[in-house]
Amino acid sequence: MARAGGSGGLSDAKLAARTGRSARDWFELLDAEAATRLSHDQIVALLVDVYEAPEWGAQAVAVRYQQDHGIRLPGEQDDGTFTVSASRSIRGAQQDVLDLAIGRATSLAKQDPEEVHRLPERTSATWRLPSGDLLVARVTTSDGTRCSVSLVQSGIRLPELVAGLRRTLEKAVVQIAADV
Fold it and tell me: Could you tell me the end-to-end alpha-carbon distance of the chain, in angstroms, rounded to an integer?
């Protein structure tokens, strides 16, 4: 049934506090509605329209329900592709951390980024990989001395690649943090 850790970092306790129902309660409602036969969008609509769940909460519940019932694998998107990510909070200047992230991601992608944005509110670089996947390096900061760096690869078509790609991104983020 519902996992304590939840999906996408939203714990059962936070889900209950923010939606008024626990994951178990939501799952029981969805089971009573035979939601395993519904699409993701239909589950969200049911939760919003009938049970008055907030849109973001309905999305989170629908993903967790589909994962719990074997309908959706972790990281699977509505279009059937997968997304993996790795992130870390590190001390350093936003632009310096972005440069390190670009260097590490360029070495993974084996090509230069297609786009680089250096505005404080949008500090990122994007690569379109030969496989069609999208790789994004993003660096955010709230105080100018501590940054969050993330690498996200999306559009992955084969679920068997997910675990290896996640490990690769996690290693890259650890290396970025070590290089600061």
Answer: 41
Helix axes of 40-49 and 55-68: crossing angle, nearest 10 degrees: 130
117 forms beta bridges with 124
Helices (H), 79-161: 94-109
- In the sheet with 134-141, reading across from the earlier edge strand, the strands are 82-91, 146-156, 134-141, 122-128, 115-119
Q: Where are the domains of the chain?
A: 12-68, 82-179
Give the model confidence (pLDDT) of 57-105 as tens digits. Answer: 898 899 889 889 988 887 888 788 999 999 999 999 999 999 999 999 9
Out of 3.30.530.20, 3.40.50.300, 3.30.360.10, 2.40.50.140, select the CATH number for domain 82-179: 3.30.530.20
* Chain segment 92-125, per-residue pLDDT in tens: 999 999 999 999 999 999 999 999 999 988 899 9
